Structure formats: structure tokens, C-alpha cells
UniProtKB/TrEMBL annotation:
InterPro entries xref list: 6hp_glycosidase-like_sf, LANC-like, LanC-like_prot_euk
The protein, known as: Glutathione S-transferase LANCL1
Keywords tagged on the record: Cell membrane, Cytoplasm, Membrane, Metal-binding, Transferase, Zinc
One GO term (biological process): peptide modification
Membrane topology, record value: Peripheral membrane protein
Family the entry assigns: Belongs to the LanC-like protein family.
Length: 406
């Protein structure tokens, strides 16, 4: 992991209020100086991003690296700062995205057409363009039967599979604050994912260790983006699987199987059978697996899950400032969400302090000799993701890893 990360230059939290008082008070509220610093950096980076986007691929509609991701950033900034200009920007970018939908079989929030449709539905709803919003939701729901049936060997994971479609539905319900998409739709997808997982577990003859199993491109991925941890995170959300009994009988032992893959460092492999302890990304490794662990702790109350999650925090603190840069998917901003998740669950100021240190790193964007990503201004690989995180840190208890956390 040493070859992939830069040395963390920050002193760790020492338990003294003195070490945190420049950043937040005893209630976890950011100081006005630090909040101001974050806000000015958001404005400064936004100007750089806008300029950089002039040379972005005009035909990339996706949330992951295209126009929908930029729209999602502006929607978030509108939430945080309440400035109407941000909503207008979100509207401009999402209409650009809708003009170049993939029209392929990709059905996910991050890499397919349903992300742009879901984001558009929310943007139009906020602009009180009710008819256009409804139309986007109707188009989104039209994918439902195909996703449940899974024609064309649809996988189950987050980036290209059923869970990525499921997230589009949840996004609508969360943002419109109502059960706009009936829970039954979400449960039908969860059931299809469970059936697929039981089938694959039998196929690989691992029923005794893990009643569910999933593969993508002939690999059994472990992390949040393509793998088991991302899938189980959603299956453990209250009500997503209608029969509680299935969560205990199928999901819990499968989560335990992932837990057994932990390296001595506290990190997790990218795939089952890969024993190289190298990657500390949201997409592969502990910064993504932690969401499964924290949800398992909420769902089953077993202390070991929280202990494993805390160990993820230690891994990210040591090896999370990546040479790959400052992005969400495999960068410092995405890794910083590990600390925010731990802070929300434990309220231990140590984790908020660590998130603030990673934010400081991100505010020195470009000064550490990191690599430039392929899409340097995008939401998941580039600067838009870093801005999203800096704005999210302003209200730590409301923060959520975008396009993923419920
Ligand atoms: Zn990644």
C-alpha cells in the first residue's frame, strides 16, 4: 500500500480539545473560520472545474464521469448553500446529459441512463416543472421489469448491475421525500438479487461458507463498486428485503464471509483469491467495505462489525492519501467519507478530526504530485467529487457518499 499512497503528514487526533478547536466545537459544529475556508475553496475549485469542463467529452452523459455527475454536484451545492444559481446550473448540465443518453443496456445510476433520468426528475421537481419531472420518473420505471428479469446477463453490482438501478429509485424517494417509487419495486429488485446470489453460490459450491455469491467478469469482487460489500450494504437496509428471515439466513452469513477475507492490516482484497494488499479505494478495499460493516452493525448489533469498521478507519488514515489523486472513486475525497461514516455512527471527534485533515489535503489540490485522472473534472474521478466532499463536510451529520450511501 506504501507504493500507492503518499505519507500522511498530519498529526493524529490526540484526544485534547486543543487539537480540534480550530476545526469544530464540542458538538461537532464546524468553526466559522474553517467553514469559511471550505466555502471559499469550493468557489475557487468550481471556477477551475468550469474552465476545465470546456475540454470534457461532450457526449458523456453519465454520473460517473460525465454531465450528470456535474449536475449532481450542483444539485448538492444547491442543497448546501441554497443559491438558486446552483439549481440553474444543475438544470443546464442535466439537460446536456439527457441529450446524449447511452441508450445501451446499462441501467445504473453511475454508468447508465437511469442516473441522468433520476437526477433530472429531482432537478425539474425543484424547479416546479412537474410534468417533465414525472416524465423522467416514468422513463426510469420503464427499466424495472428488465432489471428484475435480468435479461442479457445483467450483473448485480453497483456500477453496472441491479443495485445501480436500485439506487436510482432510492434517490428519487430520498430527494422527493415521499414514497414516489413504491417500496415494492425496491423489494422486487432485492429479491432478484438474492435469487441470483443463491444461484451463484450453488454454482461456485460455496453454499456452506456464503449462501450468496456474486461475480462480475469472472471475478468475485469484494468492494463497494463491483462487489459483495456494495450489494450487501443495500440488502441490509431496513425494508429493502421484505422477509427479515432472509436477511438473517442469507445476508448475515455472507457478510461474515467477507469479514473473513480481512488482511492482517485491516484492509480487504479487491477479489476473492487475490492476496495482494494494495488498494485502499472506495471501489476496492476498506474505504468501500466499511459501509457494509457499519450497516451490519446497525442491523445485527454484533460489536465485531464495528471493530472491523474502526480498523478500516485506521487503514484509511495510514494509506488513504492516494497518489491517484483527490477524487471519490479512488482518491482522497472518497476515502475521507470513511471518517464521516464513522463519525456519524460513533460521534467520536477523532473521526471528524481525520475528515478535516483529509479536507485540508484536498484543499491543497494539485500540490502533492499526484497523477491526473483520465477525466480530471468529473464527479467520480476528478475535481467535481472533491468539491462535493468539501461542501458535504460543512454539515458532517448530513453527509453521504454521493450516488451510493442511503
Ligand atoms: Zn475507483
Amino acid at each position: 500500500m506504501d507504493t500507492r499512497a503518499l505519507r500522511n503528514p498530519y498529526p493524529d487526533y490526540d484526544g485534547c480539545p486543543a487539537s480540534t478547536q480550530a476545526f469544530f466545537d464540542s458538538q461537532g459544529k464546524l468553526t466559522s473560520e474553517f467553514a469559511q475556508r471550505l466555502s471559499s475553496k469550493v468557489s475557487e475549485l468550481l471556477a477551475v472545474m468550469e474552465n476545465g469542463l470546456r475540454s470534457a467529452d461532450p457526449r458523456n452523459c453519465t454520473t460517473y464521469t460525465g454531465w450528470a455527475g456535474i449536475a449532481l454536484l450542483y444539485l448538492h451545492l444547491h442543497d448546501v448553500f441554497k443559491e438558486p444559481a446552483f439549481l440553474q446550473k444543475a438544470s443546464d448540465y442535466i439537460s446536456r446529459s439527457l441529450k446524449c443518453l447511452t441508450r445501451r443496456h446499462d441501467v445504473t445510476f453511475l454508468c447508465g441512463d437511469t442516473g441522468p433520468l433520476a437526477i433530472a426528475a429531482v432537478v425539474y421537481h425543484r424547479l416546479q416543472r412537474v410534468q417533465e419531472s414525472d416524465e423522467c420518473i416514468n422513463r426510469l420505471v420503464q427499466f424495472h421489469q428488465t432489471v428484475v428479469k435480468g435479461s442479457g446477463n445483467l450483473p448485480d453490482e453497483m456500477l453496472y448491475g441491479r443495485m445501480g438501478y436500485l439506487y436510482s429509485l432510492i434517490f428519487i424517494n430520498q430527494q422527493l421525500r415521499q414514497d414516489r417509487i413504491p417500496l415494492q419495486y425496491i423489494q422486487q429488485i432485492s429479491e432478484a438479487v438474492l435469487a441470483s446470489g443463491e444461484h451463484q453460490s450453488r454454482k461456485f459450491r460455496v453454499q456452506n461458507q456464503s449462501p450468496l455469491m456474486y461475480e462480475w467478469y469472472q471475478e468475485q469482487y469484494v468492494g463497494a463498486a463491483h462487489g459483495l460489500a456494495g450489494i450487501y450494504y443495500f440488502l441490509m437496509q431496513p425494508g429493502f428485503v421484505s422477509a427479515e428471515e432472509q436477511v438473517h439466513r442469507l445476508v448475515k452469513p455472507s457478510v461474515d464471509h467477507v469479514c473473513r477475507l480481512k488482511f492482517p492490516s485491516g484492509n480487504y482484497p479487491p477479489c476473492i483469491g487475490d492476496d495482494r494488499d494494495l488498494l485502499v479505494h472506495w471501489c476496492h478495499g476498506s474505504p468501500g467495505v466499511i459501509y457494509m460493516l457499519l450497516q451490519a452493525h446497525k442491523a445485527f448489533g454484533v460489536p465485531q462489525y464495528l471493530e472491523d469498521a474502526l480498523q478500516c478507519g485506521e487503514v484509511v488514515w495510514k494509506w488513504g492519501l492516494l497518489k491517484k489523486g483527490y477524487g471519490l472513486c479512488h482518491g482522497a475525497a472518497g476515502n475521507a467519507y470513511t471518517f464521516l461514516a464513522l463519525y456519524r455512527q460513533t460521534q467520536d471527534p477523532k473521526h471528524l478530526y481525520r475528515a478535516c485533515m483529509f479536507a485540508d489535503w484536498c484543499m491543497n489540490y494539485g500540490k502533492h504530485g499526484c497523477r491526473t485522472p483520465d477525466t480530471p473534472f468529473s464527479l467520480f474521478e476528478g475535481m467535481a467529487g472533491t468539491i462535493y466532499f468539501l461542501a458535504d463536510l460543512l454539515d458532517p451529520m448530513r453527509s453521504r457518499f454521493p450516488a451510493f450511501e442511503v
